[in-house]
Structure formats: structure tokens, C-alpha cells
């Protein structure tokens, strides 16, 4: 094994269970069989709310509950990144790993389970790889790095030398990076699934992106009704998550308010369990995908101009408050979504589809996986990037959160294979 592989495969010792302490936030996370995933719906009588236009119209309603003056959205400022990071914590993947551990309790307790390998299928941006990795840490599971693209195309079975000896638990967080949709790119993943199903790899947990899972189910049609996924974040679950992510400084209460009509959307802390229509619509529009919902929420937060001076003193921003113990953060309905470049043809869809199937790809591989030349692939990448449909992150091109709903709808409308969520 090369030194690079030795660093990538983090063997953490023998199997040893460590008790997990369940945090209050853990209650919002739940793992269920794939068939039990429930896409959040909308209230009766709001069928038209299925459109993004309705989502924005919610922000035009004025309610009697608001006594604050309406803010002109054009006068509000996007929250500075430093303040946004202090206001909102990232999703707590540790709590999600605790929920996953609860779902796997019986499987872990069995000395010889019926299925030696379990699967966790996650939608894009929903943290499945990180959750699987964190789940394995208390058990001192061996972390298996995905093969390199060179190993995948060569079908290099020496990759399986990374697995631990019998009796040692292992985790493979990202099966979406273990194959390529190419004539020479499927041997390793076929071997992986065959060895996993036969028990030759021992006991382990595999994480997989939902788009790759849909593709690989057609390649390896062995039913896996026990595969788990993160339950959809409906409006109630999403409101509780956003509340748990909000940091109230110095005991202040934070009011997230509709930037147009001043109505309260979310108050932290609050004894009111009501879920406002803005949260209901956000959960429905994102189809329960926690990653996209959180990103939309973060991108829509605004402050008043005087709340964030350009040169704060003593590294602290001077903030305007409504009352000494309260702070208002404005939530705008204005959020530009990407628009497909003019002259869009099937080539754009081909690029977007292959990126989603693989959880992102480096540009060098696109011409090998698509019936397009390298110059054509580069031109498409640049146009899609300029339009906001793709991003370059962690050495690969991928579809960003704010473009995902549009891209998924485009591909579904053109009868491309999509995930099952």
C-alpha cells in the first residue's frame, strides 16, 4: 500500500462501541427506509403554491400581527459573512450521526446480521458522507477512501486491500465516487457490491448519493429495502432545525421577520409552536432536502443599513435593536435563481446530468463520459458557471444548492434518470 493510501485509509483500531449522548437537536434528525421518505406537502387549498412565484407572493401579504414599519428590500443589506457565521451555526451532523446510530441499533447488536453491509442514501447537500464518517468514529471503524479515477478506469482491484481483516467494522462514506459511467468505469463498483452482498468484506456501512444510487440500482438490481435515508424536513422539523442553528448572543431574542410586511417568521427562543407559511413553503419547495432549505434560508437573510457599519470597532459590529433584549433579522423574498443560458440545447442537460450522477466531476473526465469534445465541454462548463448552474469546489465541478431545484426539474422534464426524492 502506498504512503498516500496509508494516509487516506484511517484505521482507528478494533471495534469498540462508545456511548453517544443525544443532544436536544437530535430529535429533528430521523433515518427511515427509503420507501418511508415523505415529501412535505402544502396546506389544502394552495395547489397553486407549488410554484416558486407563490413562494415570493407570501412575502407580499400584510398581517395585523406586525406593528413594525415595512422595510424596502432594496435598502436592506446582505448579512456580512462574519455576522452570518455568528448568527447561524452549520447543521449539526453529529446529532444526525446519533440519529443514524439509533436506526442501526439492532443491526449493530447482531453478531451475525442478515445483511453484513448497510447502506445510507442521501440527497445532495444533506451530509450523508459526513454523517457516515462521524457515525463510525465512536466504533473506531476503519474509514475507506474512495478509489482514484485512475484506479476506477483501470479496474484496479488492489483497492480492496484497504479493507480491514474480518471482525473489524468499516465505513465507506461516498460510493458515488467509486464508479464512472463509462465502459471501463464500472468494474470496481460491481466488485464492491458483489463482495459486500456476499459478506466477503465483513460488517460495514456505505454512504451513497441519491443520484448515484438510482443509477447503480439499474446496474446491480439486488433489492435493498433496508437502505436508510434522512427523513424529509417538513415545516415543523425545519423550523426546529433553524431555531437550533440560531445563536442568541447575550440572551437576546432573535426575530426573523418578513422584509416586506414585517410579520414574524421565526422567533428564537420562542414558546410559540406555530409554523409560519414562509417555512411551510420553503420546506415544500425544497422537497424536504435539508441542505437546500438551509442554503435558501441563509441567502435570504438581510440587515438594515445602519446595523452593519463598514468599519466596526473592536472587531464587534454595532447592531441596531428594536428593544434592549431583541434583535431583528429581515428575511427577503428576493432571491435570484439561475436562468438557463440562451440557446440551451441537449448538451447542457448532458453535462448537468453527469455531474449529478457522480456527485461532481473534474473537467478532465467529462469528454470521456460524454459524446462531446473537450473544448465543447469546457465551453459548456464556463457558460453554466457564469449562469450560476455549476460551481467549482474541492477540485470538481458540481451543481450548487440554489440551482438544484431548477436543474432537477429540467432533467425530470426531459425524461432523464433522476433520484427518487
Features:
16 helices; six-stranded mixed β-sheet; alpha/beta; about 425 residues; 13 strands
Note down, in words, how this protein is organized.
The chain is an alpha/beta fold and 421 residues long. It has 16 helices and 13 strands. It has a six-stranded mixed beta sheet. Strands 2-10-11-8-9 form a five-stranded mixed beta sheet. Strands 12-13 form a two-stranded antiparallel ribbon. The model is unreliable at 1-19, 51-69 and 309-322 (pLDDT under 50).
Brief summary of the model shown:
This protein is an alpha/beta fold.
Topology record:
Elements: H1 3-8, E1 31-33, H2 52-57, E2 77-78, H3 81-87, H4 93-103, H5 105-109, E3 117-122, H6 128-136, E4 142-143, H7 149-154, E5 170-172, H8 187-198, E6 204-209, H9 210-219, E7 228-230, H10 235-245, E8 253-258, E9 264-268, H11 277-285, H12 290-299, E10 301-303, E11 326-331, H13 346-357, H14 363-369, H15 374-386, E12 391-393, E13 396-398, H16 401-413
Parallel strand pairs: 3-6, 3-7, 4-5, 5-6, 8-11
Antiparallel strand pairs: 1-7, 2-10, 8-9, 10-11, 12-13
Helix pairs in contact: 4-6, 10-11, 14-15
How is the quaternary structure best described? Answer: single chain
The percent range for strand residues is: 5-15%
Rg from Cα: 23 Å
Tally of helical segments: 16
Net shape: globular
Helix content: 25-40%
Content-based structural category: alpha/beta
Amino acid at each position: 500500500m502506498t504512503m498516500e493510501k496509508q494516509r487516506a485509509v484511517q484505521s482507528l483500531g478494533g471495534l469498540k462501541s462508545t456511548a453517544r449522548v443525544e443532544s436536544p437537536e437530535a430529535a429533528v434528525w430521523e433515518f427511515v427506509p427509503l420507501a418511508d421518505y415523505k415529501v412535505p406537502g402544502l396546506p389544502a387549498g394552495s395547489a397553486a403554491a407549488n410554484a416558486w412565484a407563490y413562494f415570493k407572493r407570501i412575502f407580499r401579504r400584510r398581517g395585523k400581527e406586525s406593528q413594525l414599519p415595512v422595510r424596502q428590500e432594496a435598502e436592506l443589506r446582505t448579512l456580512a459573512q462574519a455576522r452570518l457565521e455568528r448568527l447561524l451555526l452549520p447543521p449539526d451532523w453529529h446529532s444526525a450521526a446519533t440519529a443514524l446510530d439509533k436506526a442501526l441499533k439492532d443491526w449493530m447488536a447482531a453478531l451475525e446480521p442478515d445483511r453484513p453491509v448497510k447502506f445510507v442514501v442521501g440527497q445532495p447537500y444533506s451530509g450523508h458522507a459526513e454523517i457516515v464518517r462521524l457515525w463510525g468514529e465512536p466504533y473506531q471503524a476503519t474509514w475507506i477512501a474512495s478509489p482514484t479515477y485512475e484506479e476506477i478506469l483501470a479496474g484496479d482491484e488492489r483497492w480492496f486491500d484497504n479493507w480491514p481483516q474480518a471482525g473489524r467494522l468499516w465505513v465507506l462514506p461516498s460510493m458515488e465516487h467509486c464508479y464512472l459511467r463509462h465502459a471501463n468505469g464500472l468494474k470496481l463498483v460491481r466488485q464492491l457490491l458483489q463482495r459486500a452482498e456476499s459478506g466477503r468484506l465483513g460488517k460495514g456501512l456505505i454512504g451513497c448519493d441519491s443520484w448515484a444510487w438510482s443509477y447503480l440500482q439499474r446496474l446491480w438490481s439486488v433489492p435493498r429495502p433496508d437502505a436508510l435515508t434522512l427523513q424529509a424536513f417538513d415545516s415543523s422539523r425545519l423550523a426546529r432545525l433553524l431555531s437550533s442553528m440560531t445563536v442568541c448572543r447575550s440572551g437576546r431574542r432573535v426575530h426573523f421577520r418578513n422584509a416586506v410586511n414585517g410579520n414574524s417568521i421565526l422567533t428564537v427562543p420562542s414558546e410559540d409552536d406555530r409554523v409560519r407559511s414562509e417555512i411551510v413553503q420553503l420546506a415544500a419547495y425544497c422537497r424536504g432536502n435539508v441542505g437546500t432549505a438551509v442554503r435558501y434560508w441563509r441567502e435570504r437573510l438581510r440587515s438594515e443599513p445602519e446595523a452593519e457599519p463598514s468599519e466596526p470597532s473592536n472587531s464587534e459590529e454595532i447592531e441596531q435593536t428594536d428593544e434592549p433584549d431583541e434583535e431583528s433579522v429581515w428575511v427577503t423574498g428576493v432571491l435570484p435563481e439561475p436562468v438557463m443560458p440562451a440557446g440551451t440545447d441537449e448538451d447542457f442537460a448532458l453535462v448537468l446530468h453527469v455531474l449529478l450522477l457522480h456527485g461532481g466531476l473534474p473537467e478532465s473526465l467529462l469528454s470521456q463520459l460524454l459524446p462531446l469534445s473537450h473544448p465543447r465541454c469546457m465551453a459548456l462548463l464556463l457558460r453554466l458557471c457564469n449562469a450560476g448552474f455549476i460551481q467549482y469546489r474541492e477540485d470538481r465541478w458540481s451543481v450548487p444548492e440554489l440551482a438544484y431545484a431548477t436543474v432537477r426539474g429540467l432533467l425530470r422534464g426531459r425524461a432523464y434518470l433522476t433520484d427518487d426524492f
